[in-house]
Hints:
Largest sheet: 6 strands, antiparallel
Order of helices and strands: HEEHEEEE
Number of helices: 2
Shape: globular
Strand content: 35-45%
Amino acid sequence: MMDLNQIKEVLPHRYPFLLVDRVLKVSEDEIVALKNVTINEPFFQGHFPQYPVMPGVLIMEALAQTAGVLELSKEENKGKLVFYAGMDKVRFKKQVVPGDQLVMTATFIKRRGTIAVVEATAEVDGQLAASGVLTFAIGS
């Protein structure tokens, strides 16, 4: 388990762009993390003021950051950066609104050198909100 301060030791992101609040579970190839979605998020001012919805691209960014926490917390990758190279098979199934808690899971399905492929899902109350396959590289 990791709290926000431990996450900030691993990821270079900071508010308002740090989108992982807590890590619940971490193993060699899988991580489960949380994002508490609140009305105070700056993007809700414009997306959309009368009906606030978390932008899908930020859900995918939160999933990418979740995978980044897993990879950058490994001893051999400490101090390195993750560069995202692509998203495939992205699907949005449920709107994410203030008050929701995203439960994000990232599972590594392939690694080759500094390139990794991750299958990622975001759920709210046990329902799939978004999913996709993310590709990234680890650099210095």
